Amino acid sequence: MEFNFCINDVLPHRLNCIDGSMLPDSFESDDRQMIAECQQKVAIILDKIGVSSGIAQGLQTPVTSSDRLRNSDHKVYLLTNPDGDGGDGTVVGLLKIGHKKLYVFDAAGKHHELTPICVLDFYVHESMQRAGCGRMLYEHMLQAENINPEYLALDRPSEKLLGFLKKHYDLVHIIPQNNNFVVYDRFFSTNPDLLPGYKNSAKIDSSRAAGKSSFSITPASGRALVSRPVGAMDKAK
Ligand code: ACO
After folding, report:
1. What is the pLDDT of residues 178-200, one digit of tens each?
2. What does the alpha-carbon distance between residue 42 and residue 3 come to, in Å, rounded to a whole number?
3. Residue ranges per domain, the chain?
4. What b/e readout covers 85-108, taking b as 16+ CB neighbours within 10 angstroms?
5. Whose CA is nearest to atom 22 of ligand 1?
6. C-alpha–C-alpha distance, residues 207 and 98, integer Å
7. Residues whose beta carbon lies within 6 Å of some atom of ligand 1
8. Is domain 7-219 annotated with CATH 1.10.10.10?
9. C-beta separation of 152 from 125 below 8 A
């Protein structure tokens, strides 16, 4: 995806992370004009690739846009090709994540109120799909967030994403939910912190190597059934 400015000046690395500040993680300047210019270009990038992602998924409204990211606690990882567009660089893909408060069934049918990291949007430019770019983005995100793939919830995953997760992470067995999010059996079964007796409001932060997760559990009632309507906290995608 090409732009009428030099992508490499705005996104100097192949893998970049943008948060609600609308600045890449590599950005280093206190100069107000430079900050404003960079934020403006980041907004153009997000809006353009967000529209392409929405079209690729058949969505009426893009999930990723500058307006939706600005001042949010979500993050967008961007993959570039620095050699593209005659050396100005191109944007190859995006991966948007963020915490969401969800009601999630475990395999036994019990309901949990959780705030996992969710995959909200994932897109690789059509010209670059099935060439490992998605894997590169996903791996980078997993390392940056220090999380195992099974501990992520997926917001309305496409068949392509489900195939991607099966191929790269052997994620196959989905636990049916009453909302638009998908979690796999390993979301619960391999997570020692979700065994009976966990502490209320436990914030789980641990290393990927140790095979743990990174999300918070909020209910005082723990694993007991939640009485509020299923999917009440779901967002419209
Ligand atoms: N049909 C079926 N499976 C596919 C396809 C496809 N057209 N494209 C990718 N995959 C899956 C397959 O498992 C594939 O392996 P294979 O080629 O051996 O069959 C694997 O992904 C390829 O892995 P990568 O090359 O690392 O992934 P890629 O760079 O293609 O990125 C992505 C994957 C982001 C899903 C890309 O295909 C894409 O942008 N698709 C369109 C948008 C989309 O569906 N995004 C997910 C929306 S859901 C959400 O964001 C929560």
Report:
1. 999 999 999 987 665 564 443 33
2. 11
3. 7-219
4. beebbbbbbbbbbbbbebbbbbee
5. 130
6. 18
7. 56-57, 119, 121-124, 129-135, 154-158, 160-161, 163-164, 167
8. no
9. no
